[in-house]
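Q: What structure does this chain adopt?
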Amino acid sequence: MELLWRKYESEYVIIHSYTDRGNQELPGRGYKDQTELFPHEFIRGNLSLKLKSLKVKEAGWYQCFVKSAEGNYEARIELKIEATAPVRIFVTVPGGSGLGLSCKSTGWFPEPTVRWVTQDGQTLAMEPVTTITQDKQQQLYTVESHITVLGGKDVGEIRCIVQNSLTGTEQHSAIELGAKEKAANRKAEQEAALLDKDNVELHKWKETLTEELAIRRARSYWVTITLDPSHQHPELIMFKHGQGVQRRPSFLGPAPCIAVGSSGFASQRAYWEVEVGDGKDWELGVLSEDTRDQVIGGEVEERPKEGVWALGRAAGQYHPPEADTRLQTQEKAVIIGVYLEGEEGKLTFYNVVQMALIVAIPVPDSEKLYPFLSPGPAGGDGRDPLRLCPPSNCDFPQQLVQKRCNKDV
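A:
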């Protein structure tokens, strides 16, 4: 018996072959380690082909051709491939008389469709501006859609839905635009002379909305941070994939235990989040390249005074002092958002649970800076690690207080 699996690419190309003369089995050219047969199943008539690590280019028509003493047989089948991806929605800088919303998703196949709807499924009257591009190498599609919501009525929940055109599979993200938020937004866009300065509640309302818009915009620059095992204190335990650290329970010394990110950022924007949980002592922020080199192998005996820009907690107080003042009026910060605006020379920390600003500090605008984490003493049981949160499409982090950002260590 001879068995050929072939794929039609302007002509039939062999991707796997088998002959019972010596039980010879060979993958086709360019398909090494990507295909597999099941010879032990042949006696049952199972001549299946397994394709591994499917990519978009594997879609198409396949032929199974069998030649035996009884005759020749063939069958064809079409393989269709779909790919879907998470959808993120965030608020852009308001312009004109409306509120800007942006929706983005990368990694779709075939080309998807996108639509904006209300909670009850009604299509929004506002016309979105949508662009769909395809990566030439991976052939996957990226969707970006923008819409401006006018502030004339209470829209409620708005959803951005991206749908696979092959199977109808959908992914979506939603944002709630209540009357309170939209009213505050309209007030913020009016001339300053029209603002009632005696209305303290309205001032607080506007400040809250401004901070929420700022953190939503910062989250659009989310990057994945991975800690570098070669740039960490030897008394730190690093979680798998470099997504968190904690002190060894046996180490109670005062020396700073620092773990540094594998990549630095210079004159660019980057955002990441860190779960500090119930930790009583910790520090996080960015280091200069020179300071990063000093912490290799725990060479420093005390925290470097130069080249460090950070937010921290020690002895029940936060530093810098303005951060402590601000956090006294907020819900406990269990997840910290870090936003580096390299070209602006600014590092901003946010209380993600409350969607509120903690503090903004100046940093060098042309120097490469590296993220770092420094957990406090483990207290003998290691309950207070620092974890890097994975990118999230959650629009209301306040609802994640109980779930936390990452329990896979």
